[in-house]
Amino acid sequence: MKKDRLYFLTFLSLLFVVYIIGYFSMNYLVDISTEQFLETQIESSKREAKEFSNMISSQITRGIPEEEVIKNIQKSIENTDNETGFICMFDWSGKEVCHPNIERIGKYATPEESFISTTNDNATSKDFYYYLKNKKEGGGIRTFNEKERSSEIIYVYPVKNTDWIIAAHANTNKIKEQINTLKRNFIIVYSITGALIVFLSLLMVRLVGSSYERKLELKNEKLSKEVLNLSKLNHDLVSYKNKVNATGGQNKASDKNKNKQRILTYSKNELVPLLVEQIAYIYTENTVTYIISIDGKKSHSNNSLDEIYTSLDDTFFFRANRQYILSINAIHKILRYGNNQLKIEVLPKTEMDILISKNKASEFKGWLNT
Fold it and tell me: What CATH number has the domain spanning 246-250+257-368?
């Protein structure tokens, strides 16, 4: 139950992070896409205005009467599709000469009738987008007073050899609708994609987590067994100490009467006989054999570790490794170390770790169980 709650909270956290990051990235992508769309719209309007201007100028140059040119232009643009923009023509006084809406012909395109004006061909898609979002001046765009107007002049181009001007209009309402549609599509796609990413991420986390949990459970089970084994081993240590102490140091067999009761040691230049039961442990270092007594005193012997061990009662002493002989009374605690090795803590403490190898560990366990 706790795991399900954890996964649920993980799902909510991932969802929150993905959508917070996605909100900013989506706005950035929408802005980039919108600017590209508007850039295409502006360039298309400019190209169309220049083509119309060149075509009209060419007709005037060939001597075609102005009335006929106006009639031809009006016929070509009348009732055309003005979904996002259209072309119209007015003279220098602002009077509409040609317009897709015939009701506009003869009327004047005064500054109050349009939001947008461009100068020196410097209006950009960023300027246009800024205007559409904020209805404020920016870059090459100048705003006007008629806020309900649906189309705005975004580019003007004069016709050579005439007093006419070609104006490219942009249908701002339609463009804003297209931008809003673009935003909605982005939101829908990102919402579905984000939820799918979070769901698949959670699924992968759960699969990986389950695999890891199984491995962890196996490790915990193995560790529990090792803890139990160590607990049993330390229990055997206490039991063996009690058993040895209860026998009062009596030998297990008659041949043990040959074991030494004392060992001759040297402390500085003094010869000191040391009772075997006073020995905590014996070790060798740099070919010198040292003997540590229960009270922590240190002395040394001229005999090797092998020679000393053969004279000791193995009821009380155990050869831990090539460097140490341990007394049962000095062993304080048994710990696991490395790959199935044992680490022995003794009192008094030693500077070096006393390790019993994997092969020697079973012999040590058997010694404690005797």
Answer: 2.40.50.1020
